[in-house]
């Protein structure tokens, strides 16, 4: 890299700009490919988790979702890799640490990541060939499968509409929160591409034609409209040579008009009303969403880009957020949340209220503007400002984004300016921007932003999303009538053509790829993978009489401390109260602090103090489990004394007597659980189904499943009668739980951090009380099969079926992980997603024996359950040569080797400790995976048949679909009664 100088041309790329970005420990290089016009950004550093992405500027011109469907479709085969699903073949057999694609409001991004050099190159090549040379020109069945198609098998049958994206967006449009967020953006920018739904509106997706589909690819998927990104430890000159020779040298620079228009200020407040479906017997009171929306500068202004992110947290999303408090105190709605979208050219800020009424619109506006004027006049609380800035600063410096590689997050941040023809570094250089924002500690910085962009805004809208008992039927009848009209308009030959196209599509979907084509997908060999499992560092030590687990890892002077308190003595009828306690702690007054000051202290002194409940089931028996209530903090090493003092104050001196404050929290919890049911239905049904046969899952169901939702709903409904008892329960639980005798601590950090924890541990001032006789004595009732249909106003289903195979006489082996990979990415992918039209499907598997099939945003119900029942036959008939088996083995190892941050490694090691998983167990699973043979998969057919014959079923979804199949269920329940 030393040879690279500005304006030098290397392998067809001219180096335009270099920079050192200390904020993310990277050297940055911006190139342009002279012949094709492709742009390239390289962030050089020592991170082995390398990231590549190629993005295209794709502003939509309508609501057909063409760019979303293209995102799916380019990954359905290409010139070089002509199999039907190269993406799936990569999921089966690569060591990727990230592999996906994203459709944003104005861009489409194709990112991959891997720590293996050979694998990284393979992933790049498959993705580049996919975006530049896709098979969608050759096979119109690709649009039919991924977008939409008419389905007709017999001339007498009605025509149906199917398609993966079509069903995905039907699910998205069933969620009131999804409708709200879309309406917020669309309403603010009606004259630009942001006025359209880039994901596609189900009512308009069927307007997409094959001609327009291919025209959009030809126009927008040009190197001249591309943004290539490379991150990590690699030989950049080698990558430039490859990109030039393999792809870009074959293109001439062309003018691509993909510019994004700026919406002129609307002037008057634009009011928009949308409806979302509820069940016919639903109570419409307190079910409306209200939202005030404001356009805020442009995303190429790094200061407002970051400042409004902080302001959103300060005003609305902090537990002590003052604007949120003012709205709730005025009796408007039951949950308030902010949203700030800065991933588009014109970012926008939204103040959202859930569970309100349409009649409260004017009162909502008044309290918001009155409160904002008060903030400008009197000033915001400086302690809260400092705390909010610290939250964002800690997040940016820590750069822990969970399963998302930080290199991928940096690519998205770069695109937030680069896409709009500005410097791609401005958001990555956050230290300078933060320094400017910190003026807020001594000036009216945030107050000036409020005045300029909110109080004096000439670009704002008001959105109402109201419940409707009839909208679902109206839309269903509209589609039904439209399809009937289509059929009426067809001649006999036209009807036959649709029948033939349906047949041809199914033949393509069910047909096998040619073996020679499959071998064109670049793969690794077993020699390329590590045979030895990584050992997570864990050393048992004793600190102040407490057992502690030390994970000796480099954490850049951040201490990660978890305190796991034993919850096994909590009675069954109080388990749901543990989740409420978890949510209340840190958000109510204590003896020393009003809760607003407590929140400020937590956020200014630490990176956060959080509370959680986890159920750690034994590795070999799901009815043996360790329920833990945890207090966790992440904090700079020198702030450990303050963090420990705050934890002590919260766990021992929280007050549970403020009925109005706790009711606010209860209503917010209820609201958030409802959102999770709408957005993550597959998790709901997997947990619920597990509770039919697993003590651990039954416990978890009471913590965060439908049982918990019923508990929190009943509490809200009968608040005046229940609060006094609840207050006593919370106080008693806190006294029982926070006991030094039952504590296991965990510290992730180096030896110096451990030493500081040991020196400061006394600050926790943990109280000891002996209740050893009670611990582990509380048993839940024996689980019972319920076979439930959980009815909502959703237009799609989440269908689960499963059992515990150990109870059926089978043992766990790591080879089952390979079976899971094969079923998820071959059988279920093809049958439930490709042919069934669901957005997703998979298999949940635990070493304790739980095995559950699940589907996601699925238009079907009984058909999907039947597919699960045929899994045994698939396994028994499964055929794969050594090449294919090696792919599945490598893909399974990739799942086992998901890269973890230091915090993630500490949490994983803790979980293994509580589950009694030894390093020998981890290595044993890995050895079994490596030793898996075709005969093993076939033999698993017996296990699968036993599991599906057990017949336990749980489905969340459309009331009409569940009622049509009510013979499958013992009971059909309205979820949101």
UniProtKB/TrEMBL annotation:
One of its GO terms (molecular function) is metalloendopeptidase activity. It comes from the Bacteria. One of its GO terms (biological process) is protein processing. Residues 465-715 form the Peptidase M16C associated domain. It holds the Pfam family Peptidase_M16_C. This is Peptidase M16C associated domain-containing protein. The lineage of its organism: Bacteria, Bacillati, Bacillota, Bacilli, Bacillales.
């Amino acid at each position: 890299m030393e040879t690279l100088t500005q304006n030098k041309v290397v392998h067809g790329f001219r180096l335009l700009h270099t920079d050192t970005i200390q904020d993310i420990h990277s050297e940055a290089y911006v190139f342009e490919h002279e012949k094709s016009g492709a742009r390239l950004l390289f962030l050089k550093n020592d991170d082995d988790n390398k990231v590549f992405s190629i993005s295209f500027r794709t502003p939509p011109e309508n609501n057909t979702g063409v760019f979303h469907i293209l995102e799916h479709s380019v990954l359905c085969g290409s010139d070089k890799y002509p199999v039907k699903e190269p993406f799936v073949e990569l999921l089966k057999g690569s060591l990727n640490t990230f592999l996906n694609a994203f459709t944003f409001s104005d861009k489409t991004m194709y990112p991959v990541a891997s720590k293996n050099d050979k694998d990284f190159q393979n992933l790049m090549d498959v993705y580049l060939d996919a975006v530049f040379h896709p098979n969608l020109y050759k096979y119109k069945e690709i649009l039919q499968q991924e977008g939409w198609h008419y389905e007709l098998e017999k001339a007498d049958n009605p025509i149906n509409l199917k398609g993966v994206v079509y069903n995905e967006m039907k699910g998205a449009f069933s969620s009131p929160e999804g409708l709200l967020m879309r309406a917020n953006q669309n309403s603010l920018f009606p004259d630009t591409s942001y006025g359209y739904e880039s994901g596609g509106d189900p009512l308009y997706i069927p307007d997409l034609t094959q001609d327009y589909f291919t025209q959009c690819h030809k126009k927008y998927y040009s190197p001249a409209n591309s943004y290539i990104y490379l991150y990590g430890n690699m030989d950049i000159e080698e990558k430039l040579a490859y990109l030039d020779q393999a792809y870009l040298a074959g293109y001439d620079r062309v003018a691509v008009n993909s510019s994004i228009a700026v919406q002129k200020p609307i002037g008057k407040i634009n009011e928009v009303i949308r409806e979302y479906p509820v069940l016919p017997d639903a109570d419409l009171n307190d079910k409306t969403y209200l939202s005030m929306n404001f356009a805020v500068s442009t995303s190429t202004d790094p200061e407002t880009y970051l400042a409004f992110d902080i302001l959103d947290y300060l005003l609305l999303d902090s537990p002590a957020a003052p604007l949120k408090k003012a709205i709730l105190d005025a009796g408007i709605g039951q949950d308030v949340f902010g949203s700030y979208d800065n991933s588009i050219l014109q970012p926008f800020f939204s103040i959202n209220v859930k569970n309100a009424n349409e009649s409260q619109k004017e009162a909502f506006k008044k309290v918001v503007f009155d409160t904002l004027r008060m903030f400008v006049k009197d000033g915001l609380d400086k302690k809260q400002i400092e705390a909010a800035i610290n939250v964002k600063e800690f997040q940016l410096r820590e750069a822990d984004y969970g399963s998302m590689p930080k290199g991928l997050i940096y690519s998205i941040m770069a695109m937030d300016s680069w896409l709009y023809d500005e410097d791609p570094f401005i958001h990555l250089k956050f230290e300078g921007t933060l320094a400017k924002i910190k003026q807020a500690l001594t000036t009216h910085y945030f107050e000036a932003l409020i005045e300029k962009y909110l109080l004096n805004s000439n670009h704002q809208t008001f959105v109402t999303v109201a419940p409707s008992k009839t909208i679902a039927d109206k839309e269903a009848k509209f589609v039904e009538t439209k399809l009937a009209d289509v059929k009426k308009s067809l001649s006999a030959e036209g009807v036959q053509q649709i029948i033939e196209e349906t047949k041809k599509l199914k033949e393509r979907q069910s047909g096998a790829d040619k073996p020679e084509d499959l071998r064109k997908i670049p793969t690794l060999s077993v020699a390329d993978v590590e045979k030895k499992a990584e050992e997570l560092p864990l050393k048992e030590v004793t600190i102040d009489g407490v057992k502690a687990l030390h994970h000796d890892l480099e954490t850049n002077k951040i201490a990660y401390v978890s305190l796991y308190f034993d919850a096994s003595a909590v009675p069954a009828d109080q388990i749901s109260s543990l989740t409420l306690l978890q949510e209340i702690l840190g958000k109510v007054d204590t003896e020393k602090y009003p809760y607003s000051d407590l929140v400020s202290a937590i956020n200014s002194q630490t990176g956060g103090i959080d509370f959680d409940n986890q159920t750690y089931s034994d590795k070999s028996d799901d009815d043996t489990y360790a329920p833990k209530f945890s207090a966790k903090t992440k904090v700079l090493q020198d702030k450990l004394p303050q963090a420990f003092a705050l934890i002590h104050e919260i766990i021992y001196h929280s007050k549970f007597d403020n009925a109005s404050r706790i009711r606010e929290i209860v209503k917010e919890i209820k609201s958030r659980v409802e959102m999770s049911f709408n957005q993550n239905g597959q998790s709901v049904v997997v947990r619920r189904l597990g509770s039919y046969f697993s003590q651990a899952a039954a416990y978890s169901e009471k913590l965060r499943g439908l049982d918990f939702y019923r508990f929190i709903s009943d509490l809200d409904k009968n608040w005046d009668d229940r609060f006094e008892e609840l207050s006593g329960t919370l106080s008693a639980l806190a006294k029982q739980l926070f006991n030094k005798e039952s504590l296991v601590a965990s510290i992730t950090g180096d030896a110096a951090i451990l030493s500081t924890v040991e020196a400061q541990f006394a600050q926790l001032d943990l109280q000891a009380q002996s209740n050893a006789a009670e611990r582990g004595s509380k048993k839940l009732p024996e689980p019972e099969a319920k076979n439930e249909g959980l009815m909502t106003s959703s237009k799609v289903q989440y269908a689960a079926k499963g059992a515990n195979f150990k109870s059926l006489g089978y043992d766990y082996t790591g080879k089952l992980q390979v079976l899971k990979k094969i079923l998820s990415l071959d059988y279920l992918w093809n049958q439930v997603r490709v042919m069934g039209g669901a957005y997703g499907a998979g298999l949940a598997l635990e070493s304790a024996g739980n095995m559950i099939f699940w589907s996601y945003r699925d238009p079907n119900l009984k058909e999907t359950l039947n597919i699960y029942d045929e899994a045994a036959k698939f396994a028994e008939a499964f055929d794969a040569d050594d090449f294919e088996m090696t792919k599945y083995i490598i893909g399974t190892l990739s799942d086992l080797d998901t890269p973890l941050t230091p915090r993630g490694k500490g949490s994983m090691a803790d979980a293994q400790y509580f589950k009694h998983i030894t390093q020998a167990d981890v290595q044993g699973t890995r050895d079994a995976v490596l030793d898996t043979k075709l005969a093993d998969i076939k033999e698993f057919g017996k296990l699968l048949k036993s599991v599906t014959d057990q017949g336990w079923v749980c489905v969340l979804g459309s009331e009409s679909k569940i009622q049509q199949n009510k013979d499958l269920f013992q009971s059909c329940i309205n979820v949101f009664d």
